[in-house]
## 1
Amino acid sequence: MQEEARKRGSNVPVRHGDKEDGMSKRIELDCGAVVPGCEFVAHGETPADVLAKLAEHGRAAHGIEHLSASLKARIMAMLEAA
């Protein structure tokens, strides 16, 4: 998970961009959009990838054992809106 964490360089919680190989897209979501002050950034090729990484991080770093349906919906809405 360390490779997933980095300092946020933007106030935008969700970003889409090309991977270095240029072959596929990458989606990023700042955990700080959900847990203010957290600098973790989840990366994935699909919204489901990002959600899974955020859930794993939430358990490990914030003690969130279960993502409620409303929290999942809020995260997915952020990912889909970008």
## 2
Amino acid sequence: MSPAIDPLGTLLQNVGEGVCLVDAEGRFVVGNRRHAELLELPDDFLRPGDPIDKLLEFLRDRGDYGSDEAYREIRRRISEATQKALVYERPGTGVRPWGRTGSGRWF
């Protein structure tokens, strides 16, 4: 019997962009290798369940934001984003599309 394949995990690890998923409570869920490479994070720096503040504070302390004002603006935007529903469910279908087309329709 072959081991179970995680298609989403496989996709996440093989896209060229850095991707990080954070839940509604502001906790790290998963990120790909490219995310860690682009941000030059130490090995295994973020683990599932870690507050995203751990990453933000690390980057601030390292000087990546350049100023306290920039850090505060990033924190404000993240706080604002977590207050909004980020998942759309097509009414009556139980289907949760992944994005929108250019015309605004969900796919």
## 3
Amino acid sequence: MRAILRQWRFNSLHKGAMLQEIDLTGIYVAPFALYMVMAGIIFVPLRFYFDRIEIQRWFWHRALFDMAAFVIILSLVGLVF
């Protein structure tokens, strides 16, 4: 938790710095696209775990729950990186 707060303070001090595109063999990719890939890598095993514990019993609409969980993971990845 302290590391996250330290990173947040560092980012808040350097708000003037803009995100840079990432060069993948000559193709420029927005950092947000890589954040989405990282969130997807985290979300897929988590979704299998949700299937195993049958989480749909507790939620009315499973797709909305999955989307909300992905958005939460994506925002945490964006906060950390």
